[in-house]
Every structure is written in structure tokens, then in C-alpha cells.
Amino acid sequence: MQPPAEDLEDRALIWSSMQEFWMDIDPAVTFNLLMLPAPEWAGFEIEWLKKQVLLKSRFGKTLPYKWLRPVSAYWWRKLRAGIVQHRRSNM
Q1: How far apart are CA 70 and CA 33, in angstroms?
Q2: In 3D, which of 87, 23, 17 has the Cα closest to residue 57?
Q3: Handedness of CA 58, 61, 62, 64 (dihedral sign)
Q4: Cα–Cα distance measured from residue 69 to residue 65, given in angstroms and rounded to the nearest whole number
Q5: What is the DSSP string of 61-72?
Q6: What average pLDDT does range 40-57 have in this prediction?
């Protein structure tokens, strides 16, 4: 797997369609969770989102909270096969 900065085109499609599922973007948009009253979730403009994700990326670093690692690993196993399949079908 490549770092986000080297894989923007492929990741942007996924980030755009999975914003609601909190993939790589959670550190980039955490501020949105803290806003009260809660704003409407309508997604983010993709160019802005790319910049935020690269700015906040923790690629290659361990998760900050040990209790998150099993959860992250579970979802990664589920998502990985789909991502690989999507990339192969679009080559």
C-alpha cells in the first residue's frame, strides 16, 4: 500500500463515496463532531478533503489508542478485498 500522497487519485474516489463511514478522513474532519448544534452532514468538497487528509495523515504510524486497533483491523480486513477488487477492475 502506498502513502496517501502517492495514491491520491485512487483514494479520492473512495474518500468521496465513504465520507460517511469515516475511512482515512476522521482526523481531518473531527472538528465537525464538536460543532453544536450538530451541522447537517452533506459531505465535504473533495479538493478540500484531500488537503485535510494529507495534512492530518497518520499513514505508517500506530493508532493513537490501543483499544482502537482491533476495530480498525476488523474493518480493514473487510474493506481491503473490496478496494483491491475495485482497483483491478478500473485498470
Answers
A1: 23
A2: 23
A3: negative
A4: 7
A5: S--SSGGGHHHH
A6: 81
**b/e per residue 26-47 (b: at least 16 CB within 10 A):** eebbeeeeeeeeeeeeeebeee
Cell of 47: 479538493
Q: How far apart are CA 31 and CA 90, in angstroms?
A: 34
Residue 91: per-residue pLDDT: 73
Give yes or no for residue 52 having a pLDDT over 60: yes
Cα 4 to Cα 27, 41, 70, 77, 79, distances in angstroms: 14, 24, 22, 18, 16
Domain boundaries, the chain: 4-89
Residue 91: alpha-carbon gap to chain centroid: 22
User: What are the pLDDT digits (tens) for 70-90?
Assistant: 877 788 888 888 888 888 998
